[in-house]
């Protein structure tokens, strides 16, 4: 047992410094050596150190069998996607962390905690458990390494770190063969990996893995995951210029999402249909789909709500009524403080705020120094197209032909990548 590593874990769990833990018991340097497993401390010293960390070092072994049984019960609920029972077990075991002195049990707890967080959408708690598994990485068995990489990929996708997500999910696939897990776990990683590849503009490879995932989901009658896979396939086909393939997959995704009452996914589907409508200049379709996305996303309080509002602002300003488009900025976006915005959304909202009051000198600098570099760096082609159209049209209307030409050239460059 790496008792020093466990001592360090429990110290960090309580947010204590080495100085605080060591005070009046041992020197800081000696504690550091204990935590790094370079010296074996006396049992009495360990008992006192763990007591300061609210851990009964002499009593914990009596808890181990009970905790093993509870972890086994939790595994059943996670396998069945039973959210209520999983939440009950999470709370029940979370209060017993100070009773765990077995590395195997501790790692099993955090592996299940990560899966629970994915089930419940608890990103911040997932991050904490991922850090624990990273710290103990060399002690992980194949199964735990698989789940570590899988949910690290999920976490990176959630935080828009697509390249890191792709790396983590690729590692999960390498660990799967020796992990002896159900094939649906593999299908789940195929889907996530396909999504990461799509977001990293690797369409052909993304198409391959997403189709593999869909086949597994269909064979196991996982209709909710079929809906998610069909959406990604629709977006891939759209980017590759296959309109028929795109339309059929997105329609199928929408039908499945409606049948399974997947509100968040329906909001995402309508949002992406709105983007496709804008690029195709189907303004009625774009307005309908974006309004529908706003309605659905507002119910579940996702930041897609802001994305759809921003797109609707563009549609209203460009194709219907500039005043109406800017009214959305002033009356709606500025009152969305309760919605969590990502960094790109904050930049977009700031741009529209400047654009709304026609502070040309300010918004021009903001576009050149902040908005455009951020979109180009993250390769968000759809938004690059939309803002390039907006600015090219503005400059053309006001006879700034050189600047207008720059944005039209940028549009052509993105179109060549987009394969529309």
Structural notes for this entry:
By secondary structure, this protein is an all-alpha fold. The chain has a domain at 3-58: 434 Repressor (Amino-terminal Domain), CATH 1.10.260.40. The protein is built from 22 helices and no strands. α13 (223-239) runs parallel beside α15 and α14 (243-259) packs antiparallel against α15.
How would the blueprint of this fold be written?
Elements (H helix, E strand, L loop, with lengths): L2 H11 L4 H5 L5 H8 L7 H10 L8 H19 L3 H12 L8 H18 L2 H13 L6 H17 L3 H15 L6 H17 L3 H17 L3 H17 L3 H17 L3 H17 L3 H18 L3 H17 L1 H10 L11 H14 L3 H18 L3 H17 L3 H18 L2
Beta-strand level of the residues, as a percent range? under 5%
Shape type = elongated
Low-confidence stretches: none
Distance between the ends: 59 Å
Provide the CATH top-level class of the domain at 3-58: Mainly Alpha
The strand count comes to: 0
The average pLDDT score comes to 84
Give the number of helices: 22
Instruction: Return the string of H and E elements.
Output: HHHHHHHHHHHHHHHHHHHHHH
In CATH terms, the superfamily of the domain at 3-58 is: lambda repressor-like DNA-binding domains
Radius of gyration: 26 Å
CATH fold node name of the domain at 3-58: 434 Repressor (Amino-terminal Domain)
Question: In which range does the helix fraction lie?
Answer: over 70%
Query: Helix/strand-derived class?
Result: mainly alpha
Largest sheet: none
CATH-defined architecture of the domain at 3-58 = Orthogonal Bundle
